[in-house]
Each structure stands twice: as C-alpha cells, then as structure tokens.
Design brief:
By secondary structure, the protein is an alpha/beta fold. The protein contains 23 helices and 9 strands. The protein starts with a helix and ends in a 5-residue tail after the last helix.
Length: 554
C-alpha cells in the first residue's frame, strides 16, 4: 500500500503539472509549440501527398526527422487524428511513462517509496521549467526511453535493453550513442582498486547485439539526413553571425565559461534546473561515509549505473565538441541525461540524510526536529514551482497564430503557391495554412550546408528585392522563385525594422544595403501596397505578384 500511495502521488503531480501546461495549448485553435512547427507542418503530406510541392523547407525537415517519430505521426494521420491536436495531448502519456520509469529506477536503487516520489517530482519540475515535455519534437522521447533503458539495465533484461535502445535510436538517435557507451562501460568492473573485465559472456553478447541494433536502426536515418549535408564545420560556423549571440543558434560565446558550461547548445551543464538537483552531487560523498548513514546498506550496487550514465554522456559531449558539428550540438548529450541522473541521485541523497537525521533525533529525543524537517522539506519540494523565483511554470513555449483569416485565405489558394515574407508571421503559414513559404525565421537552421546555402541565398535575394527601387529586380526575383504572394508588414519600410531585427541582420551585406536604400528612397514594393493588396490586416498586407509583374514603373 505504501508503494501504491507514493506512486499514485507521483503520477498526480505529473498530471497536474502537464495539465497546467496544456491550458494554453487548448485556448485557441491556432496554438502550437514553437519547435513543433518545424516537424509537424511537413507531416500534413500524410493526409495529402500533393502538399508542399518542391518545398525546400518541408523536404529538409522531413529528411532530418527521426524515422520513428515520422512513423508515429504517419500512424496518427492514418487514424484521421489532427496532428497538431495530437502533439498537444501526447505529453500526458509521455509524462506518465517518464514518471513511472523514474519511480521504478529509483526504487530499484533504493527500495524506499519516498525516493521514487521525490525523484519523479524533481524531474517533472525540471522538465516543466523548460519545454521538454511540451515541445512536440523528438527530444520529448528522450526521458521515458532513457529511464526505461536504465531500468532494464538494472534488471539485467537483455531483451528490454535492446528494444528500448532500438526505440531510442528511432526517436532520438543521439542518446542511442550514450546508451551504447553505458553498455560498454558495464563490461568493466572496479574491484579492489583495480579495473577488471567482466567474465560474464552474456555481457559481451548483449554489447555486440546492441552495436548491431544501433547500426541497423541509425544507418537509414544517417543516409536520409545526409541529403542536405554535410554538416557545417566549426571553422565556417565561427565566421557566421548565426552561431553567435543573437543568432539562430547562438552556439559560440566570447565568454569561455558560458561557452563550455552554460551555453544552450555548447554547455556541459546547460539548462540544469531546479537548483535542488545539485544535491545529487552529495551522493558519492554520502556513500563514502556509510557508518554515518546507516540506510546506505540498502542501496543497490547498481547505483553505479548513475555514474556510468554521467561518464558516457560526458564522453559523447567532448566527442561532439571535437567533431563539431558531425554529432550535432554537444549539450544534447548531457543536459537531458544529467537532469534524470541528478533527480534520482538527489532523491536518494535526501532520504539517506533524512534517515540519519531521524535516527539521531530519536536517540536524542528531538522529535520536534523530525516534524520540523518533514514540514520544511515537503514545503520546499512541493511549493517550489509556485515560488516568486519562477516567473513562468510550466514553461511551454507555445506560440499563437495571430491572423486566422490569413490562414483561411491562403488555404483557399492552389496548393502550389509560394509566399515570400520577412515577417515572423510567415513561420505559422506552413502549419496553419499548409502552404509553402520561401523562407522563415523558425526554419533558418544553419546546420546542413546544402540546405542553408540555398536558404541563405533566398534570404539575401528576398531582402535585396524587398528594398530595391528597381521594379525589374523585383520581377526577376518573383520569376526566379515562382513567388505567388508577398506578405509585408506595414512597418517593414521603417529603418528600425531592419536595424533592430537580429534575424535580418544576420544576412549581410543585404541588410546593410537595404537600410541604405531606405535612407535614399522608398522601395518599389512600398508603393504597391495599396494597388496590389489582396488581403490586409492592421499590420499585414498580402500582395499578389501577378499584379506586381504587370507594373512598368512607379
């Protein structure tokens, strides 16, 4: 009954946090997770294969979408379920699975139900301080699958390990390398101050099988994602504003501490929160002083799996830095796994410290200390998210489309139309209108060279054409990219629109030249906003390029 109580309480908090996050998700039809737009928009091809014909952006994100993630949404589409709707409700299931495996792993290491509750509570709080359960992207699957891998590793279930490893490689291949390294580390033992090799033949068979499974599953994805490769080199990235603060990725930093430790894409301990997780660093120290912490005798020897996970993640982190960017962003190998390991280690540390404290208090008749400790600990753990220190909890990063009438208008247009725009509202068009855009800030991912070279060329050509006074240059641009509509913000022809737009400023010298042009004369498109408009809102004007093409002079 005790286990059922604490497990049920763990699920209750998990569901509560998720439902809090989903309140905004269902407040409007045109709301979706920020990063989901990259992955889900192209998947509407599952309903209609004729969507996004010859679309560079759709083709690229289809190529980099993990195979398992694509299959899942293909099944959902086959069932007739709206993909955007599914992306909003699926976090509930993922959260329950994550919580369950976190509870189970904790109980395997220290069979005290409260350990499972504290670990899952801290992990769910950590996940909800970022958007790692609400992003509707492949990374949402890291947590349930990695925790499942830890669980089956402790249970020595070879079949379970191989199945979870295959699923991890299908859903988020990067963590599959961490799993594989953990299995490699488990071939070695630390005995009497020396490293020895396992004498269990099954360990080597399992590792060999894991290598085969990883290779079979990842190879098709590697081939698929190489269509727009190779990845950019670190040397080239250093020359691009896209990779510095204010850029699309913001990978590099002039602050070496920030670069190596806290950078979202480059840092070793990026996004580690809440601060309570740092208590997990006490666990190795506590285990060294077993006489002072009697409950340590109940700690399973498989607690070493937590250290193995840290070592494996760290090896992949530094390897990814050394091979930048062939193995994607280095921080992806640590900040996800570290949060899970620290949540479990923190829970175990707290219980071991509490047990030692309670034993001392009972021996010295300090019952008031026991009661006070329980109250303070409970309040600190449970009430932390509602503390003034957290401005937003849960953090979901949902974005809302601001112009449903625009999406409805575009949906009534032919499927092969192309919309050119420098407005951030264009980011929502592929998902909410299922129509092709030429470029979009959300899709400006400077990772694969073949993709971004084309994307960057489009952006520079678009800026040049949007801010020129030469009608022929505008017409040439329209013809080159088969642009059907041109979406403009009314503020687009004010100097600050360019100078204060960090995205446009990445595309030099086009942005600088555009600003210079604005100082001299009014761009030709500005003079056509009334005569060629087919749709208008307070700040947006949609021009039909057929109208622009017949203009001779302004």
């Amino acid at each position: 009954m005790t286990i059922i109580f604490w497990y049920s309480l763990s699920l209750t908090f998990a569901v509560g946090y998720i439902l809090m996050g989903l309140q905004k998700a269902f407040s409007s039809k045109y709301i979706v997770s920020d990063d989901a737009r990259e992955y889900i928009s192209w998947m509407y091809r599952y309903f209609n294969p004729d969507l996004f014909p010859g679309d560079l952006i759709a083709d690229y994100f289809q190529s980099v979408t993990p195979i398992g993630y694509g299959i899942l949404y293909k099944i959902i589409a086959a069932l007739g379920i709206n993909l955007t709707f599914f992306s909003k409700i699926f976090p509930i299931l993922l959260g329950l699975i994550t919580t369950s495996y976190c509870f189970a792993v904790s109980m395997q290491i220290l069979p005290v139900p409260m350990v499972g509750f504290i670990a899952s509570l801290l992990l769910n709080q950590s996940l909800c301080m970022h958007d790692d359960l609400f992003s509707a992207t492949p990374r949402d699957f890291i947590y349930p699958l990695f925790l499942a891998f830890l669980y089956y590793s402790i249970r020595a279930s070879g079949l379970g390990i191989l199945i979870v490893l295959a699923l991890q490689c299908l859903m988020y291949p990067l963590i599959g390398f961490v799993d594989l390294l953990i299995l490699a580390l488990r071939l070695f033992r630390w005995q009497n101050g020396q490293i020895t090799i396992s004498q269990n033949r099954k360990d080597f068979i399992l590792f060999a099988a894991a290598i085969i499974v990883t290779g079979i599953v990842i190879l098709p994805y590697a081939i698929q994602s190489s269509q727009f490769g190779p990845p950019i080199t670190a040397a080239a990235a250093r020359t691009m504003p896209d990779y510095w603060p204010g850029g699309r990725v913001s990978y590099f930093s002039h602050n070496i501490i920030n670069y190596w430790f806290f950078g979202r894409d480059s840092g070793f301990i990026a996004l580690i929160a809440p601060p309570q997780l740092l208590l997990g660093l006490l666990l190795p120290i506590i285990l060294k002083f077993k006489l002072h912490f009697p409950l340590t005798k109940e700690v399973n020897d498989e607690v070493k799996l937590l250290l193995q996970a840290v070592i494996a993640s760290s090896i992949m982190f530094f390897t990814a830095h050394a091979l930048a960017f062939k193995l994607h962003w280095p921080s992806r190998y640590t900040h996800h796994t570290f949060r899970m390991v620290l949540a479990i280690a923190t829970a175990i540390s707290i219980i071991l410290i509490l047990d030692a404290t309670f034993r001392w208090a009972r021996e010295n008749e300090k019952q008031i200390l026991i009661l006070g400790t329980i109250i303070i600990l409970g309040a600190g753990l449970i009430l932390y998210p509602s503390s003034f220190s957290l401005k937003v909890f849960p953090k979901t990063l949902y974005v809302q489309g601001q112009v449903p009438t625009l999406y409805n208008f575009l949906q009534k247009q032919p499927q092969n139309i192309v919309i050119a725009s420098t407005s951030e509202e264009a980011d929502n068009i592929p998902l909410f209108a299922q129509r092709t855009i030429l470029v979009g800030k959300e899709y400006a991912l400077p990772f694969h060279t073949k993709y971004y070279a084309q994307f960057r060329k489009r952006m520079i050509d678009l800026i040049n054409a949007q801010y020129t006074e030469d009608i022929n240059q505008v017409k040439d641009f329209i013809q080159k990219y088969h642009v059907t509509f041109w979406l403009l913000e009314r503020s687009a022809f004010l100097p600050e629109y360019i100078t204060k737009n960090t995205w446009l400023q990445q595309y030099q010298p086009a942005a600088q030249q555009a600003n210079a042009n604005l100082q001299k004369s009014l761009p030709v498109l500005a003079t056509l906003m009334n005569s060629c408009a087919v749709f208008e809102t307070d700040n947006l004007v949609l021009l039909k390029t057929e109208c622009i093409k017949v203009v001779t002079k302004t």
